[in-house]
Amino acid sequence: LDAPLFADLAGDCQVSFEFFPPKTEKMEETLWNAIETLAPLNPRFVSVTYGAGGSTRERTHATVARITRETSIPAAAHLTCVDASRDEILEVAREYWAAGVRHIVALRGDPPRMGEKFVAHPDGFENAAALVAGLKSVAPFEISVAAYPECHPDSADLVADLDNLKRKIDAGANRAISQFFFSPEAFFRFRDAVEKAGIDAEIVPGILPVSNVAQTRKFAGMCGAAIPPWMDRLFEGLDDHPAARQLVAATIAAEMCRKLYAGGVRHFHFYTLNRAELSYAICHLLGLRPEQVAAERAA
Ligand code: FAD
């Protein structure tokens, strides 16, 4: 694709940021620094993940409720089907609605122990599509679901994966956010397949700015994303050069976003890992500016 230069990007895209709930006071401080840094970029929404087996239920709730209370950014709560009955999950959803939270990222979730097969709770939701339908019965939530440009590992093939995505959208989801990937071509192929399958929903690419390849590889193995060999090559010899590693990380992710932009993408979802700087730098290269700077330029 003939991608435009960063200098030519108009800043006409939207972004959203994903965080995880902090475990300690120090982590809470890091998270809030990240939110305060990224908030002026006027994100479409921010979301907070839900740990395996509901282990972060209270912390996810507290974080989403605090963002809703203390900022004007729409906050989305991730919610999974793991180890909980339908009644328990729908009660959590009711609490979110009561706290003013209007957006849920609805997921099946991974088995609590790595490598095991997912088994639904005897009184639980069997998958994300069933959860979406359940949430819609509670309140008119805005709902995002997950999508997999390189196919979910539990799916027999891409057709089965697309059927599953269609069920989630048909059940009432508004959009899908993709698993991270490192090949824009893989994302475009997936987006074309989604359209061909008659699925009429926005597919937002999930962008993971990588600065630690070993850690990312461990995670990628579990979730159907491939780490291309060029990634190792680009980080080769940088273990003792953290600043250079950050610059390389931002460059790789920004280059991918530039290609996605050229292919028509106008909403990018960043897996921030609660650190603002990489995502901020990439948004800046995409032409985004804090509201105040943009207003001064327009004046
Ligand atoms: P589903 O859409 O239910 O699908 C899971 C698999 O089962 C697919 O392969 C699907 O094809 C298959 N399947 C489903 N129903 C059927 C059926 N009826 N017949 C045959 N096959 C079927 N995990 C967390 O624990 N917490 C989080 O906060 C979290 N956030 C995430 C955010 C994003 C944007 C993404 C992409 C993933 C996230 N995950 C999170 C990971 C996610 O929980 C896992 O990838 C999980 O394994 C699948 O969840 P899902 O919602 O995609 O499941």
Automatic annotation (TrEMBL):
GO terms for biological process: methionine biosynthetic process; tetrahydrofolate interconversion. Keywords: Amino-acid biosynthesis, FAD, Flavoprotein, Methionine biosynthesis, NAD, Oxidoreductase. GO terms for cellular component: cytosol. Pathway: Amino-acid biosynthesis; L-methionine biosynthesis via de novo pathway; One-carbon metabolism; tetrahydrofolate interconversion. InterPro entries: FAD-linked_oxidoreductase-like, Mehydrof_redctse-like, MTHF_reductase_bac. It catalyses: (6S)-5-methyl-5,6,7,8-tetrahydrofolate + NAD(+) = (6R)-5,10-methylene-5,6,7,8-tetrahydrofolate + NADH + H(+). Its cofactor is FAD. Its EC number is 1.5.1.54. Belongs to the methylenetetrahydrofolate reductase family. This is Methylenetetrahydrofolate reductase. It comes from Edaphosphingomonas laterariae.
